[in-house]
């Protein structure tokens, strides 16, 4: 068996659930998440990529998931298929099978709210607050400038706050800017 196949096998054994979870948070649908993960795996391993570590492969696949997700929404914007106000299969599934765990309603509300965000805002919010990546890490993962990531996060959080008022989103920077005076007199 070739080394890239060994890396793929190890990746799927160790990280399949995490990669699927990431795709699910972005899509909100198990079938769409499976398709997105499969597409990302094909994109990553279709060429006999040099054999690397599982961590490197995980990063490649995760980036491919983000890219494929954003690309699919770009194409869908040209051909919208949902009606305004339609929340897709996620809303119906959560109503049909409620989770008895405490706090599940809050998590479902947060996930439903995240699904209302545009693709780049959604990807930035998921990477920053659910994957706990620093802004520089989100920028590197998505191939964006740090300023763009900050803007997408700011816009995304502004959209989420009214929808999930019980969730507190930490800020990455203080609201005020410190002023330092120079040693000279006026």
Could you please describe the fold and organization of this structure?
The protein is built from eight helices and no strands. The protein has 186 residues and is mainly α. The chain folds into two domains: 1-78, no CATH class; 99-170, Winged helix-like DNA-binding domain superfamily/Winged helix DNA-binding domain (Arc Repressor Mutant, subunit A, Orthogonal Bundle). It is globular, with a radius of gyration of 20 Å.
Topology:
Blueprint: H1 3-27, H2 30-45, H3 54-78, H4 88-96, H5 104-114, H6 119-130, H7 135-142, H8 146-163
Features:
Arc Repressor Mutant, subunit A; 186 residues; mainly alpha
The radius of gyration is 20 Å
The strand count comes to 0
Beta-strand proportion? under 5%
In DSSP terms (H or I, runs of 4 or more residues), the helix count works out at: 8
Task: Spell out the helices and strands N to C.
Answer: HHHHHHHH
Straight-line distance between termini: 76 Å
Global structural class: mainly alpha
Overall geometry: globular
Poorly predicted parts: 88-104, 174-178
Main pleated-sheet profile: none
Number of domains: 2
Q: Helical content, roughly?
A: 55-70%
Overall pLDDT, averaged? 76
